[in-house]
Structures are given as structure tokens and as C-alpha cells.
Amino acid sequence: MSIRLNPYLSFDGNAREALEFYRTVFSGELMLSTFGEYGPSDGIGADKIMHGQLEAGDTLTFMAADNPPGTEYTRGNDIAMSLSGDDADTLRGYWKQLSEGGTVTVALEKQMWGDEFGMCTDRFGVSWMVNIAGDQA
Fold first, then answer.
1. One Pfam family for this entry, by name (predicted)?
2. What would the pLDDT profile of 82-98 be if each residue is shown by its tens digit?
3. How do the domains of the chain map onto residue ranges?
């Protein structure tokens, strides 16, 4: 079982460009998913990045996305800490403690891509994302 902690940056519509630039800097494998892949493909922002991830070697994981369509982009909501892995009990424990006394923006529950995912802001104003890998059957 494993757990990772890495930064998750938000961009105002140019996440693809930023991630492709970071790939030229760090090398590695870049994975991109658009909002259109998980919703209406003809909607506003359908070509924007819902989730991007750059894996470079064994030590660097860099995640980023465009703010969802209709969500205002402001400095301060442009970075979050992301916990991910397959150790469900440990990750749920982290979620419980981080969200306690804070604000849950997305409940930790199964999502359309098959994983459990939640977002919260802890009592100190730090944004957190928790993703528990689903069964990869």
C-alpha cells in the first residue's frame, strides 16, 4: 500500500500549456483529462484540463488543472495539497482529521472516474484533496 503527498496547482485556462512546459523541464510522462471527457463535450471549457499529472522518475509528481468552468480564479485558491494512494483506511483517517473544524467542499465519496475523492479546507485555511484509488479490476 502507498500514499503520496504532492502539490496540486490550479490555472486560469492555461493548465495544458503550463504542464507541457513543465514536461520539457522535468521530462517524464504527462497524462491529461479534459472536462469534456467527463461531461458535455460541447460545453464551455470542455477542452480545459480537469486533471493533469506529470510523473518524472520515482520522486516527482506534479498535478494541475484549470479552474472548473464558472469558477472564479483568484490567487489563494490556486494551490492545494493532494494526498493519494491505495491505503484507504489511512487516507480516510487523514481526511477525517483534516476536514474536522474545516470546510468540506466535495464530500469524500466515489466519483465518476471510479476513485473515492474529497476536497476540504482545513481549519487553518489550507486546501486538501484526498483521492483513494478504486479497484483496478
1. 3-dmu-9_3-mt
2. 999 999 999 999 999 99
3. 1-77, 89-137
